TrEMBL record:
<protein>
    <recommendedName>
        <fullName>YjiS-like domain-containing protein</fullName>
    </recommendedName>
</protein>
<dbReference type="Pfam" id="PF06568">
    <property type="entry name" value="YjiS-like"/>
</dbReference>
<dbReference type="InterPro" id="IPR009506">
    <property type="entry name" value="YjiS-like"/>
</dbReference>
<feature type="domain" description="YjiS-like">
    <location>
        <begin position="3"/>
        <end position="38"/>
    </location>
</feature>
Length: 49
C-alpha cells in the first residue's frame, strides 16, 4: 500500500472519530450509534476508501 493511501485512511479515521466524538449522547442515539461504536465505525469508514 502506498504512503498516500495510508495517510488518507489515517486522516479519514481521525476525522470521523473527532466528528462523532463531538456529538452528545442524544445526537449519537438519534443516529443509532453508541459511543463505544465510534472507533469501529471510523475504522470501517477508513477501510472503505
Amino acid at each position: 500500500m502506498d504512503i498516500r493511501k495510508t495517510f488518507k485512511k489515517w486522516a479519514a479515521y481521525q476525522q470521523t472519530v473527532r466528528e462523532l466524538a463531538s456529538l452528545d449522547n442524544r445526537q449519537l442515539n438519534d443516529l443509532g450509534i453508541n459511543r463505544t461504536d465510534i472507533n469501529r465505525i471510523a475504522r470501517d469508514h477508513a477501510n472503505s476508501l
